[in-house]
Write a structure and sequence with these properties.
340 residues; mainly alpha; 76% helix
């Protein structure tokens, strides 16, 4: 009798344990879905959800790949570059799994963006080249081409960057992907600014602004709007500036991005100065201190060239990050082979 009781109790515990494992797996899937939902709208919330998932080694292959991919993406969005590479190591350790193959282009895209942000420009281009070989979806192909073009601009390979953007634009137009078209136009405008072709930059920024307005993309709307205001100042187009500024200023006030606010502060201070107003020393001091908040050395160089000189503000030379050589890590060797 006692033996039968022990057998029954053991069977019950086994059943309960199996049930708990099943529920736990379902719970993980639910949390991964929640984290995915918040990736772009609230990446900090997404990371907080992911941090609650424990015992990663006990997850299924699909769950592991989803977990590390989301960790990689949120770290990139939050610019926590030092946190990205361990997630890449974990992902590429699973590269023989079907779950990895299903997410291959997303993983390669994230890897390339991390390399680019870390100034490994040549390695980033190698990764994007591999990603293009495995990209079947047109939307993903657009994103990879844009990412590759951004690297080419960093390398000042403008002809290559423009060619890549034109390839992406051709696909985006076929799909009527207005947001991608607007992004491409804005980035082509930035290249035109680099090359000193302000009129061409204005035309690109006008197209970008229109596209971002139609797709309700607030970040792109503000950025392309400030870019356009910048060209108006350089070309002394006061009426165009006065028409656009109130709208862009209102959007910028409502949007939580200090780099955009710093950019608009520089642009509007220069316009105010051009109207015959002498800027107080405090404003000039604030401009100087806000220079470091601008989004990257390329924009800083343009501000220094076109605006600081007008305001008689002496800024230090802009330091561009030197390209770095990426160490031949095991996962990067796999990318170079690109055999998936």
């Amino acid at each position: 009798m006692f033996y039968k009781y022990k057998v029954a109790l053991f069977s019950l515990l086994t059943f309960i344990s199996a049930s708990c494992l099943s529920v736990s797996s379902e719970d993980v899937d639910y949390e991964l879905t929640r984290a995915q939902y918040f990736v772009r709208s609230n990446p900090k919330q997404s990371q907080a959800i992911l941090n609650q998932i424990k015992n990663i080694n006990s997850l299924s292959d699909e769950q592991k790949v989803a977990f590390y991919t989301l960790k990689m993406r949120t770290s990139l969005i939050l610019n926590k570059l030092e946190a990205v590479e361990p997630h890449l190591d974990s992902l590429f350790a699973l590269d023989d799994k079907s779950a990895f193959a299903d997410k291959l282009v997303t993983i390669l895209s994230g890897s390339g963006i991390w390399l680019r942000k870390s100034n490994y420009f040549d390695a980033a281009q190698q990764v994007f080249s591999c990603a293009l070989k495995h990209t079947e979806k047109s939307g993903q192909r657009i994103s990879i081409l844009i990412s590759s073009a951004i690297v080419a601009r960093h390398q000042q390979n403008y002809a290559i960057a423009i060619s890549l953007y034109n390839q992406a634009a051709a696909i985006a137009k076929k799909l009527d992907n207005l947001r991608a078209i607007a992004t491409i136009e804005n980035n082509l405008g930035a290249i035109a600014m680099d090359q000193g072709d302000i009129k061409q930059a204005e035309l690109h920024f006008r197209q970008a602004l229109s596209g971002f307005q139609r797709t309700n993309n607030h970040s792109g709307h503000i950025n392309s709007g400030i870019n356009l205001l910048f060209t108006f100042i350089i070309q002394n187009q006061d009426i165009n500036y006065q028409r656009l500024y109130p709208h862009i200023s209102k959007l910028s006030d409502e949007y939580p991005d200090n780099s955009k606010k710093a950019y608009l502060f520089w642009v509007d201070s220069t316009y105010t100065h051009s109207q015959g107003y002498k800027l107080p020393t405090t404003v000039k001091d604030n401009l100087y201190s806000s220079f470091d908040k601008l989004a990257g050395p390329q924009l800083q160089a343009l501000i220094r060239t076109y605006l600081a000189t007008r305001l008689d503000i002496q800024l230090p030379p802009v330091t561009f990050a030197k390209a770095r050589l990426f160490e031949n890590k095991s996962w990067y060797t796999k990318v170079l082979n690109c055999n998936w």
